[in-house]
Input
Amino acid sequence: MSAAETEKKHSHPTNEWVMSGPWAGAWKIFAVIGALGLAGAAFGYTTDPRRFAFSWMFAFITCLSVALGSIFFVLIQRLTSAGWSVTVRRTAEFFAYGILSLIPLFIPILMTTGHLFPWFGGEHAGAKEHGAEHGSISLITPAYAQQHAAPDHAAPAAPAGHGDEHAAPAPAHGATGMAPAGMAGMAAGHGDPASHGGPAAQAHAEHEAHALIHKGVMAKKSAYLNKNFFYIRALLYFLIWTVLAVRIFGDSARQDSSKDPKETLKAQAFAPPATFLFALSLTFAVFDWVMSLEPSWFSTIFGVYYFATGVVSSLAVIILVTMALKNSGPLRGAVTPEHFHDLGKLMFGFNVFWAYIGFSQFMLIWYAALPEETTWYHNRWDFGPWAKVSMAILFGHFVLPFFWLISRNFKRNLGRLQIGAAILLCAHVVDIYWFVMPNYALGSNEFSFHWLDAACFLGVAGVYGAFVFFRMTKHNLVPIGDPRLERSLHFQNA
Amino acid sequence: MSDLQDAPVLLLAEFDTPGECLHAAEALRDAGYKDFDTHTPFPIHGMDAAMGLGDSKLGWIVFPAGLMGAIGAFTMIHWMNNIDYPIIIGGKPAGIASLPSMIPVMFELTVLLSAFAAVFGMLGLNKLPRHHHPIFNSSRFASFSNDKFFVSVEATDPKWNVDKTKALLEGVHAKHVELVYDDEEGGDELEHSSHASKGHA
Output
């Protein structure tokens, strides 16, 4: 290839794949929405700070998952040295870089930790909560628990009875009839069998025993769940994410002008350690910010669950945004149905993964029926409104998108893929709502959609969107210096 | 010996490059041919479209098989544990409320039957296993697994015409075009010919 041809090849796309058309001003719309949302959120903070705290957490965690999922998308492309995805990678890089805009949006969470985290020693703390946290597990055996709730059925009813103590006080925690497996599990869970099943606990009334257990559990966890360590960890997460975002975007953007293939090698060398940092920071962040909303509950798979839902939502966002930019002009010629087919495959695959992880978490807890583990589903299943939300997630996040997206033709039909991505994105928002909001009124039948939920969501999503779309006007929408650009432009699945 | 057996069963065109092979496929597709195939040492991107291949029918076999796996597993467990011999395990009711315990088996059986359907469906759609095909009677054909690219047109094609098809293939710069005859699967006649050993390799 002659020098002139090389020159032509590189200069051609430079003029084409920049932000233009109707989406060039999108950041202004996002900014207005964000400003209105923030104003509403600020007003809500003054009137109902507790609701604001939970609404904001929901909004923050939702947008964070998109940013983290985008980081993961780029890392995977770098790890696998992928050529197909070059033309869509920049879109993911924009959304990954957008995580920087979420750092200041974490401040409201720091302001409301007392409302959010029972272990923080704020307004939230108190005995009234722990009963709900150790709530009934009638979810596990609805019929069975009712039939066997009588005191004389101590042995088989022990797992059910433990959570039902307010209704049927007889089966004590330390009763000899307690199933050994359950006993062992609880001992492990609480770390201190004496405080649980020992003679001292038996002497107390059920509720007091529970309070003691709760106190014991919290004392055990205080080495991790304490204010200072919480702040240090949060700082660490944002530090890691800042480094990842700056490197991910920087390596790629520098190549636009330098055309240096070494940037690609640099980015690929960075990806393996970055993936470790990403996985650890994501897991512990969601432990800290979401799982500790109900601190006596624990699930080791929780981080993976959040990771899966984040990857699905970010792929949905990448599909929707690249499609919008393709249809309106700026990405025309760069992204083809072949790319959407592959993005669709990834989205479908990770959605099945999400369902697999979600079910794994549920089934292990359901099967073991340990009271301190079942509370999560108790709060989301035994109360009418939340049970409906749970069903909506099951069908809207898995069953419907699964059958919609399983066909190759549906993934290659841009209109249908767009619908699938939109369904998954909506379901994702509901999923995070379902994570966070039941903690607002633990153990009660309360489900109310508050206007603050919408205000906070629009506020955070508006700021995030404005940041991302503004940056899109400043950089190329395709990594034009990437050595694999040509391969990606002519990519074909078969 | 009838005329039918003397008639060629396919035309085989040889090409040196994947590009020529791809364009030959496009030419055949555009001319309206259906019963033709390409034989190349490695997969060529865009060949599906060039050959005018439609969607694979495999999905219509795999999907019902997977569905049968899910339904079969559910029916089996429901019958055994909830109806025929109701059994309470781990305090879980012997009924539909214990669905979570059935899902792993439903999932596994779905995957198993889908995989079987995909493998055996693929073999069936490809008419495999098949011990012999007349195309192996060509002495040049063996290099399809080395460095040559072949296009074969079957005599069963509705557009088949020895002269016209041959002219078409030569028109797209085939290096070599030959007529291939059936040998009645190892019949006496060709047993001693030079092709026989290659044909069964």
